[in-house]
Design a protein that fits this description.
Distance between the termini: 71 Å
Mean pLDDT: 76
CATH class of the largest domain: Mainly Alpha
Low-confidence stretches: 113-127, 199-203
Radius of gyration: 24 Å
Shape: elongated
Structural class: mainly alpha
Helix content: 55-70%
Length: 203
């Protein structure tokens, strides 16, 4: 049986069938909401996340969650369904931001082992005076090391770790592919480590 949810009466019929366990009816309800959710998703997709996931990926993830948790939807009309799905989608975006931005912070801490002076000391190890002094020393060491890098290496670290640019965006700036930009960043980090390891003032 093919379901059509184009009108209010048809929507109610689809909703009733979906709650009765019809996967086809639930699929029709969700597909009806896809254009709206894609619009919301494209508005939410910030530049630094574009290389990580697309709006369509997040909408599809939202549909999977909605299918699993449909029993938790208690609305009675299209507006309420859209609002319910929108909240799931926004939660997925929040999780995406948290995951990749926290990962970026851990990556910088692991590979450089220094604070990011352009990020409001987000990597500070503590609030004690000694911790602040150590952070300032590390910041100064990092600044000195960055100045010793070739210009392109310095720029790619600036764009990736401080400005949070995606590799796709960095590649466009350099006229390279995103993968080539990523490899350049990896090499730049390795160069930075070699400068820092011999016993800079931060050690």
């Amino acid at each position: 049986m093919a379901f059509s949810c184009s009108g209010e009466a048809e929507f109610s019929r689809c909703l009733e069938a979906a709650r009765a366990g019809s996967p086809e009816a639930l699929g029709r309800l969700l597909e009806m909401c896809r254009p709206y959710l894609l619009g919301v998703g494209n508005q939410q997709l910030e530049m630094d996340l574009q290389a990580k996931a697309g709006a369509s990926d997040l909408v599809q993830e939202t549909f999977l969650e909605a299918q699993r948790g449909f029993s938790g939807f208690h609305g009675a009309n299209e507006t309420e369904l859209l609002a319910w799905l929108r909240q799931i989608l926004l939660n997925n975006f929040a999780n995406l931001r948290r995951h990749y931005r926290d990962t970026d912070k851990r990556e910088l801490r692991r590979e450089v082992a220094l604070n990011d002076p352009a990020a409001d000391n987000q990597l500070a190890v503590g609030d004690s005076p000694s911790s602040h002094a150590q952070a300032q020393e590390r910041d100064a060491a990092l600044h000195r090391a960055l100045q010793q890098l070739p210009e392109q290496s310095r720029l790619v670290i600036q764009w990736r770790n401080y400005e949070r640019c995606s590799f796709e965006d960095i590649g466009k700036r350099l006229g390279r592919s995103p993968e080539a930009a990523r490899k350049l960043w990896v090499r730049a980090i390795e160069q930075l480590q070699k400068i820092l390891e011999p016993g800079d003032a931060a050690s």
